[in-house]
Amino acid sequence: MFFQKKIRIKSGVQIAAVLFVSVYGGASCYQPLEIQQNTEKKSVSIQRLLVLPFQDISGVYGENVSITCQLCSKVFTTGPVKPEAAQFLSERLNDMLDRKKIFKLIPPSQARGVISVLLQQSEKELPEMDLYVKTGQALGAEGVLAAYVHRFRDREGGDYSVERPASVAFHMDMIDVEGGRMVWSANFNETQRPLSDDLFQLGNF
User: Fold this and answer.
1) From CA 35, how far away is CA 177, in angstroms rounded?
2) Taking the complete model, does pTM exceed 0.85, yes or no?
């Protein structure tokens, strides 16, 4: 475990697991989340967490492009993302974390100005890790949670005929500000099977 007793690794996994349930609507046809935990022995205490808004990776690089994450080094393939998907996921994530009281949250709105200043002051492009660590330090955060959506597509078709199944792919990385390293990562990538329940059951929220 990389968290101290107050924040166990189980709590970190819940961030992705509960968000998954929220988005996926409790449908039965899914694969487990892929969880990457810190393998180092050093304990990390994260209580003040800066939660950054979801980034629409497809909006930056386009669709059907393979992108390597600068933080976790995994390769993800982009797909169609609804315009409101990033905001939708960001709101669900923040609502869930606020209800669970796992961390003392620093609003993402406070990070925008800091990030803008850091980018303007830097003579060259800052790596994501450095940018997020410096932002966390400026705001007094012990951890930074970065989130990315690669695909977010609604189900198309009638009740008994599916033209295109719903499909979602996103991942989240948690950074230890003091150590300047990633300590937790979760990846979800699933396309719903035909004739199953609607992926986006908004009534469940």
Assistant:
1) 20
2) no
